[in-house]
Amino acid sequence: MEIIKIVSLGIVATVIIVLLKEIRPEFPMFISLLTGFAIFTMILGELSYVIETLSTLARRVNIEFAYFSTILKIIGMAYIVEFGAQISRDAGQESIAMKIELGGKVLIMVLAIPILLALMELILKILS
Amino acid sequence: MGVVSFINSWLRDIVVLFILISIAELIMPKGNLKKYIRLVIGLLIIFTIINPFAKLFRFDFSLDKVVFNYAKPETFNSWELEEIYHNQERQIEKIYLKKIVEDLQSLIENETEYELVDGDISILKDEDNYGQIDYLVLYIREKTRNNSQGRISIEKIEPIEINRNLEKDFTEYNNDESIKALISDKYGIEKNRINIKIYKKGIGEINE
Question: Which of A44, A72, B42, B92 has its CA 20 to 30 A from that of B116?
Answer without folding.
Answer: B92
